[in-house]
From TrEMBL:
Keywords: Membrane, Transmembrane, Transmembrane helix. The chain crosses the membrane at residues 15-38, 50-66, 78-101, 132-154, 166-187, 207-231. It comes from Agrilactobacillus yilanensis. This is ABC transporter permease.
Length: 242
């Protein structure tokens, strides 16, 4: 299998899964909103955040594909380096397309009877980008970072089996809560940590700074991709019987 063939194959799979996710998500969210509009006597103003459903979709898709795609590509003659590039390029493209979809849906739908339905994104709400392209770049980098984390976790989980895998999955799920709790408990007592964390997340002095957040995300993405490349080079080959 050639690199171009593998890339096209991967992109088609991700576009198909992305299309299925978007159809189900839009039908579900609009369906609930329309039911509320029908049963309610007054004006209904519904807000739906696109962020968390997108994060869950990316993590699930990347972890699953990282395991299956490596075995499939390696058995079809693709080198480990090309497998890594295929995954990076395809996920970068899918993150960009999902970012475009998110950006185009960030507005309010108003119906004739006064009911409204609005899509939002929590990061756009917090950082308030001044231009459309800056908003797209912010969403794209956040999605790409989440993608890189999911690929890294998926590659790591492929190397372990049994109860240890279950334990690590649990740790991965609860680690953000533990980290946020630790930082939240430490920040009030340490002013330097407060300043450092605020600069890393792009909120120095409580004011949004997309540039600072972009630098942090770029560093984290490069670290995740570097670790993924190392896992990819050392990952054992497990044959899939047809």
């Amino acid at each position: 299998m050639k690199f171009k063939t593998a890339f096209i194959y991967q992109v088609k799979r991700q576009l198909l899964s992305l299309g299925i996710f978007l159809v189900f998500w839009f039908v579900f969210t609009f369906g609930i909103s329309f039911i509320l509009m029908i049963v309610s006597k007054g004006d209904v103003h519904t807000t739906n955040d696109f962020t968390f459903a997108t994060i869950a979709y990316i993590i699930l898709l990347s972890c699953m594909m990282m395991k299956k795609d490596f075995r499939f590509f390696i058995q079809n003659g693709l080198s480990r380096g090309h497998i890594f590039l295929v995954n990076v390029l395809s996920t970068t493209l899918s993150a960009l397309l999902l970012g475009l979809m998110t950006q185009f849906t960030l507005h309010q739908f108003t119906f004739g009877n006064g009911d409204t339905f609005r899509f939002t994104n929590i990061f756009v709400t917090i950082y308030k980008p001044s231009q459309w392209l800056i908003s797209l770049g912010l969403i794209w980098m956040l999605l790409l970072w989440i993608n890189s984390v999911a690929i890294l976790v998926g590659g790591f989980l492929n190397r372990i089996r049994g109860w240890l895998r279950i334990l690590l999955i649990i740790i991965f799920i609860i680690s953000p809560t533990i980290l946020v709790g630790f930082v939240g408990a430490t920040m009030p007592t340490n002013h330097q940590i407060t300043i450092f964390v605020a600069q890393c997340v792009g909120l120095p002095n409580g004011l949004p700074n997309i540039g600072g957040l972009s630098v942090t995300l770029s560093i984290l993405i490069l670290i995740n991709l570097g670790l993924t490349y190392l896992f990819n080079r050392r990952q054992p080959i497990v044959r899939i019987d047809g």
